[in-house]
Amino acid sequence: DAKTTQPTSMDCAEGRAANLPCNHSTISGNEYVYWYRQIHSQGPQYIIHGLKNNETNEMASLIITEDRKSSTLILPHATLRDTAVYYCILKKSSGDKLTFGTGTRLAVRP
Amino acid sequence: SAVISQKPSRDICQRGTSLTIQCQVDSQVTMMFWYRQQPGQSLTLIATANQGSEATYESGFVIDKFPISRPNLTFSTLTVSNMSPEDSSIYLCSALPQRHGYTFGSGTRLTVV
């Protein structure tokens, strides 16, 4: 699976939108973009995924550029409970493994 | 999505001994996965476990050190054998349910002394 690049850390103010970028310039046509997060001392939690269209669910929005070489996860109104490590992962439609990179450590400040 | 119960949540073990970690899923799942997360690091996949077949191990992990069982579609175990302090990590299981979102257990925090 192709590699992703994320900033090591970010912070945002509580109540504001958190925009987490991910670069995946070598993404293949059959690779989905998945986002997971890991809150301290817990297992990773699925957030959202997409192929080429923007996606939204109750947790977040995923914006994928037209060329699919980058994406942004948006938490519209960040809370203190959103403090976690966020992982952007590429997974082939036919593959089953999730390969985790180093992720972005998001700190939401009061 | 599926819910995974993982046991034990933590353990402190003597070097040279073995620990078996269990994961129970509340629904039948095709594939289960075992990860290791060393202190301050990301998750590294150890192996993929399918029911009725041998587990498939990633590079750097071997069956003698990390034997895995998958007796049915809702259960799997990972054994960490002949432990050394370098095996101190969090071990997590994951399941691939019918939908896209992989589910993870809460992890087993292992300390080897």
Outline the structure in words.
The complex is a heterodimer of chains A (110) and B (113). Chain A has 110 residues and is mostly beta strands. Helix content of chain A is 0%, strand content 47%. Chain A is built from no helices and 9 strands. Chain A is globular, with a radius of gyration of 13 Å. In chain B, strands 2, 4, 5, 6, 9, 10 and 11 form a 7-stranded mixed beta sheet that branches. In chain B, strands 1-3-8-7 form a 4-stranded antiparallel beta sheet, with no helix packed on it. In chain B, a hairpin with a 2-residue loop joins β7 and β8. The model of chain B has no long low-confidence stretch (mean pLDDT 93). At the A-B interface, β3 and β4 of A face β4, β5, β9 and β10 of B.
Alpha-carbon distance between the termini of chain A? 37 Å
| Gyration radius from CA atoms of chain B, angstroms | 13 Å
Q: Detail the poorly predicted runs of chain A.
A: none
Q: Which structural category do the helix and sheet elements of chain A fall into?
A: mainly beta
Reported for the largest beta sheet of chain B, the result is: 7 strands, mixed
Q: Averaged pLDDT of chain A, please?
A: 93
The overall pLDDT average of chain B reads 93
Biggest interface, chains and residues, is: A-B, 19 and 22 residues
Low-pLDDT windows of residues of chain B = none
Global geometry of chain B: globular
Largest sheet of chain A: 5 strands, mixed
Strand content of chain A: over 45%
Q: Find the structural class of chain B using helix and strand composition.
A: mainly beta
Envelope shape of chain A: globular
The count of strands of chain A amounts to 9
Order of helices and strands of chain A: EEEEEEEEE
Could you tell me how far the N terminus lies from the C terminus of chain B, measured between alpha carbons in angstroms? 37 Å
Indicate the radius of gyration of chain A in whole angstroms.
13 Å
